[in-house]
């Protein structure tokens, strides 16, 4: 059947009207919540506050979110996924032009800084919620795993000792970045370093450690 004879809901990629309305409602709730969080803490917001700001009923809210905290999780996951996609594109660009390990690491750290800075209210709320704080740390752990896998793939060294050194370097750096930008410590600012300077220094530190690990692994394998 030609496309022009089909119902709109039958066309490939077209969301049926009911689903479209539901998606738009979710987007309004998320946007309204994010705007409210620029003025007050998430923990101080009620479902009624969010519904009023989003111009939706409580029944519409609960048809899409089981609890108020689920809105915060949805916001975090949405921005985290966008950040990962942007970071992947940035790293691919560096690798395409033959960039070295230090530049690749710096690029990833820059994207993490941007994510935290641009989503400060969400990050703070996630971190301060005892139920959701694991979400905050799991995001950093996810980035660390991706970088760890990338480094091992770049060097092609299948050595347990090398893997341990890479994991140690990456996880220490990931933890440093989180505490430098987020809570509870902002030592980058206290040291007079802006995000770019801190990204460069951290990348220099971790790439130097990895280079040493490569030399050590090569020497050990040559023995």
Percent of residues in β-strands: under 5%
Number of helices: 10
Percent of residues in helical segments?
over 70%
Largest sheet: none
Inertia-based shape:
elongated
Salient structural properties:
mainly alpha; 2 domains; 10 helices; 0% strand; 223 residues; Arc Repressor Mutant, subunit A; disordered N terminus; Tetracycline Repressor, domain 2
Give the gist of this structure.
With 223 residues, the protein is an all-alpha fold. The chain is built from ten helices and no strands. It folds into two domains: 12-64, Homeodomain-like (Arc Repressor Mutant, subunit A), CATH 1.10.10.60; 72-222, Tetracycline Repressor, domain 2 (Orthogonal Bundle).
Fold topology:
Layout: H1 17-36, H2 47-54, H3 58-64, H4 68-96, H5 101-118, H6 120-128, H7 133-155, H8 160-181, H9 187-190, H10 195-222
Helix pairs in contact: 1-2, 1-4, 4-5, 4-6, 5-8, 5-10, 6-7, 7-8, 8-10
Please, could you describe this protein's structure?
With 223 residues, the chain is an all-alpha fold. It has two domains: 12-64, Homeodomain-like (Arc Repressor Mutant, subunit A), CATH 1.10.10; 72-222, Tetracycline Repressor, domain 2. The chain has helices at 17-36, 47-54, 58-64, 68-96, 101-118, 120-128, 133-155, 160-181, 187-190, 195-222. The termini are far apart. Residues 1-17 have low confidence and may be disordered.
